[in-house]
Design a protein that fits this description.
Length: 320
């Protein structure tokens, strides 16, 4: 049984124009996205900037309200929960943002930042217990008890991301949405944060929705991978399967950009040409057809559906 099931999720934003800002259409940021995440598993969601990955993550947590679809967390359909019930449910569902400094209050000490959710959700009853819990959490993410007295600007980027992870862990969540958590960090620091996240997953059984635009990062941490293009999932498979036997032309283009140490194993680079379609008025057929070198007449006329082509490997392409 999946911890999280996302079924036919859609998020459309109104397109306004004219002097009176009348609604003239809809921008389909997320269109009919479905996937699941098992307990203690990492599902990597990958695609280029603007494809809707972050909107998926925020819609799952209802930080923005989805237009339609269902989000089922631990057998509970949270899309219909009233605001008070949803706030309580968010104890089990946390988020880590891309910019660690931007998500930390610069006027609060690290100890206060981590203690704030403990107080709000009343997880500890006394100040002494709260202090002990803050120290325990800091040490869990590789920081010291003395760090609780410092402010965010006194830390490096990697240390600030550890603080953000610590704040998310303070509520003992079962799922963390990771919105490009290492993309703003140096490569060596990225590896440290990813290894920390994997260690925490082993010890605490946390599930991750890991959003990224780089395939190597997703490969390092994910058991399953979903590839998004302009609001739609175009391929879903196990991590090993998608890196050894990807099928969708867009996934192949992403994979061709991944650096390889061995030049003989480096695939021929696929340079995507053509125009990216406007999601406010999308074309009739496949959204990737204008950039796909394999495009046929059928691709321009009919949008492909995501279908299973082998066990646990699904692709949205007429040519597969």
């Amino acid at each position: 049984m999946a911890l999280l099931e996302v079924k036919n999720l859609q998020k459309f934003f109104p397109v306004k124009a004219g002097l009176f800002h009348r609604v003239t259409g809809q921008y389909k940021a997320v269109d009919d996205v479905s996937f699941g995440i098992e307990e203690g598993q990492t599902f990597g969601l990958v695609g280029e900037s603007g494809c809707g990955k972050t909107t998926v993550g925020k819609s799952i947590l209802r930080l923005i309200e989805p237009t339609s679809g269902r989000v089922i967390f631990d057998n509970c359909d949270i899309t219909g929960l009233p605001p008070d019930a949803m706030r309580n449910e968010r104890r089990n569902m946390q988020i880590i943002f891309q910019d660690p400094y931007g998500s930390l209050n610069p006027s609060m000490t690290v100890g206060d930042i981590i203690a704030e959710p403990l107080k709000k959700h009343r997880l500890v009853s006394t100040r002494s217990q709260r202090e002990d819990e803050v120290v325990r959490i800091l040490e869990t993410v590789g920081l010291s008890a003395m760090d609780r007295q410092k402010y965010p600007h006194e830390f490096s980027g990697g240390q600030r991301q550890r603080i953000v992870i610590a704040r998310a862990l303070s509520l003992r969540p079962r799922l963390i949405v990771c919105d490009e958590p290492v993309s703003a960090l140096d490569v060596s620091v990225q590896a440290q944060i990813l290894n920390l996240m994997k260690q925490l997953q082993r010890e605490l059984g946390i599930a991750y929705l890991f959003i990224a635009h780089g395939m190597p990062v997703v490969r390092h941490i994910s058991q399953r991978v979903g590839v998004m293009y302009l609001g739609k999932l175009v391929e879903i498979a196990g991590s090993a399967e998608i890196f050894s036997h990807c099928l969708h032309p867009y996934t192949r283009a992403l994979m061709s950009a991944v650096p390889r140490l061995d030049p003989e194993k480096r695939p021929q680079r696929i340079i995507l040409k053509g125009e990216v379609p406007n999601l406010a008025s999308p074309p009739k057929g496949c959204l990737f057809s204008s950039r796909c070198s394999l495009c046929r007449d059928l691709c321009r006329q009919e949008a492909p559906q995501l279908r299973e082509v082998s066990p646990e490997h699904s692709v949205a392409c007429h040519l597969v």
